[in-house]
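::Amino acid chain::
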Amino acid sequence: MEQRQLVPQTSEPNLRGALSTLPLSLFLTPKISPDRAAAFRELASSRPRYARIVDVEEGAISVLPDFEHEEISALERRRCRIIGLPFAERLLHDPSSVEKINALPLYDFILPPESSVCHSALPPPVKLRCSVLAKWMGARISDEMNFAKGLLVTVRVSLHPRSKYQEALARNVPIVRPSFLEAAWDSKERVSVEQYALPALSGLAVCFDPRHADIIDQYRWKLAEHGAVMEPLNQAEVVIVKDVFSPLYEDAQKIGILCAPPLWLDRCFQLRRCVPIRGELEVPKIQSIGSTAPGQSLGSFGDAAAFQHVCNGALLGSVLCLLYLPSADDRNYAKQLAWKCGAFTTLDPHDRAITHVLFKAVSKMSVNVSVPVDEDRISFLDISWLESCVRERRRAPEEKHSQQLVNYNPTCDHVHAAILGRNINSTTAPNHSHIPGKASLEARPSDTVSASRVPLADIAPARVHQPPTIGKPMISMPTSEKGVFAGARLGVFIGQSAQEQQREQGLVDKLCAHGATVIRGSPEAIAEAQPAWCVCCDTLEPSLANFQSSLKLATGWWVNACIADGIQHSRASFPHFKPCQGTLPIPEMNGCAIRLAAVGSAQDPAQTFRKRELLGEAVQLMGAKVVDQKATWREITHMVCVVPALVDPKQYEGALKRDKHMVSIKWLFDSFDKGSRQREEVYVVKSPQSVTASPEGQMGTPIAKASNFTVLASYHVFISPCSLASNGKLPCQAEQLGAEVHTWRSAEELQAALAAYGITPCGSSGDNSSSRLAADKDDKDSSTATNVSNVIVLVEKEDVSTTLIAYVNMLAASQRIIFVSPAWLAETFSQRRSLPLEAFAALPVPDAEGQAAKRQRTGEARYAWQSAASKSLTQLSEETRAMALHSKQTHKLSEGLRLADLHREGATPSSTASGR
């Protein structure tokens, strides 16, 4: 038979030897279906010059109907040559196909055999999978972008000029995701490249200037659609800025991050490629041309082109407030001059970076402004000063130009009130001051002169003394969807001192980073917005004194504690969570050395330590000194008992013997709230047994009587002492669900309380069983049985006593179901629906004979052959266990009784104090 030499163009020596001569020896694997195998054998027999079917796998080329990674790997380890059945059929029809083979195993020419596949930025498992699929489908694998026909497989874009992505753009090579190869392999045919093209900005980290909220809102969804991710500056790859004068541009340049204007984003979206940042897509040097029409005159500075030609940086770093220029044309003119000198402009009088405030014409009368008057930092000048800076190409001396006399009086600032959209004169006709350049919404037909054209000096002085109305506050949106303040609206009010103003921005950023929406503005504006809390200074500002009833005032210490602990603390938990009425530190507290005693239970040391730490902060704010347990009695002046019931008797006696002040925590709370040291005699702890802790001493959180849900509306929930000790949140949860909460100390007290709701025993204790059975029968037969479905009693096994069991056994069946475990209330609060009581029964249910069902014995078995020593040890162990259990139950009961007394006084212990 004639032998034909066919040498494929490949670098694999094994492939050259396997396919160098015809006919090819093909071994059909058993996985090929009989029908298809018979058809292939018939085709091969008709072309004996090209292939012949053999029955031995060794030395032949294995033909598979489909490729699986595990099977292919096993065959390759045995040095087998593998092709797919579709390619074998192609080979018999067109023997020249063997010359196009790039590598084996080869399933078929699904991809063009002359094309190359290159990978970039793929994880190792994904890269291996893509390489295997490309080889199976007939393409060539290339590590370099040195081809003109093929494709690049990647998961992210790159702006590096020597990256494979940018080289693929230059060569006009398609860029696809790994799913392209998977789709082609699944369908066993070529698929559309456009359908699996890589998004324009896939995986690119983009940072925006946070002050450009309009740009962020415009591009936020477009970036997500095209695969980009918004990141902070330290994690970004590209920074989007308007011009080179942005502070973010300078920071990015210092750390080597690329910068681009919004135009670059638009171009990437248009071309669906991450194009390089060059040419017209670079950050513009100045924006004056963009806001000025070509050929427009700029007065003595000529047209826009001439103005752009002579730019300088005389005012770099300066921020000019243009709010008090009377018209929009004047502000646009001042913008051109400011940008020409490299200065920033703003219309926000609260911007702490303001260095100059410009006026159109300086008046001899004083003008009310909202910009803090700081002669060392801010200058109030005529616009002629800015014109001089442009002409002289240097910063002109401020003292040589006219300066405006101003008064810091935000409530009487007509210009700022117009910007906020409010009327200064609320008692007269509508004020026509408005945002310059827009018509007043309340202007009468006769009011043809715009208020923006009226000089500030001509405003009627009588209007200055009118009470202001509420303006629109500034709102800062949250930068995170998670955090302790997620979904909360918080107001921020900081005093007028420079130190307090420096804290404002950091506080706002911190709140926004933890999910809060921050409202800033005047007290009137914040009160109108109705935030959940208003954060202010440590001391109560006079301007906030009238808003204590409408605003829940909190301090920065409260914010820090909430963030550190991950919960929203009650403002009554610690004294310094609310602002002080007086001044801090309190002069009378100087010289006081306070030791905090009986802070909490030893069973929860972490919460006790945290509570001690927060109380120590309050003591130091008041000007006193905190001493620890190592301090001697000579160094201590006050012993402050947080939980007087937990005071060590020896410590109490030592304080009395040395004439030290032994006071409750309420002394510390009242001293802080009133801003003065209170008399210690009023707060003396008489003895550890007789003193009941005050609500402040237990870090109490008053329960809001207004419930958020009505799941348990009209319910009466009775909570036992042990239930309250196990979970201090139960009263709060019940009242939030709309129920009325009661506490009880003994079975007799509970019996008397339930009698008021119609729950009474049906007989005396002498005939317990017969009375109960008769009551059950009457309960079933009578349609007028007492309805007790709205009364619930929460009890635990520690509350069960002989008296309580006897009382329950005398109740009817419909009345006994009201005794449930505390888990019923916890689950009801969690699911926001009333759960069936039968599933949470707390007491054993008596049988028909009146006896409780016997519990199966679960204790260890005793054996007669145990030695005396073993029996003695076992007995001792059981007694010790019983004593420990009894001690724990006693402590739990006493704790529950104490908390029940607190609830009756109108306070509920917080979860940090009572939850164990």
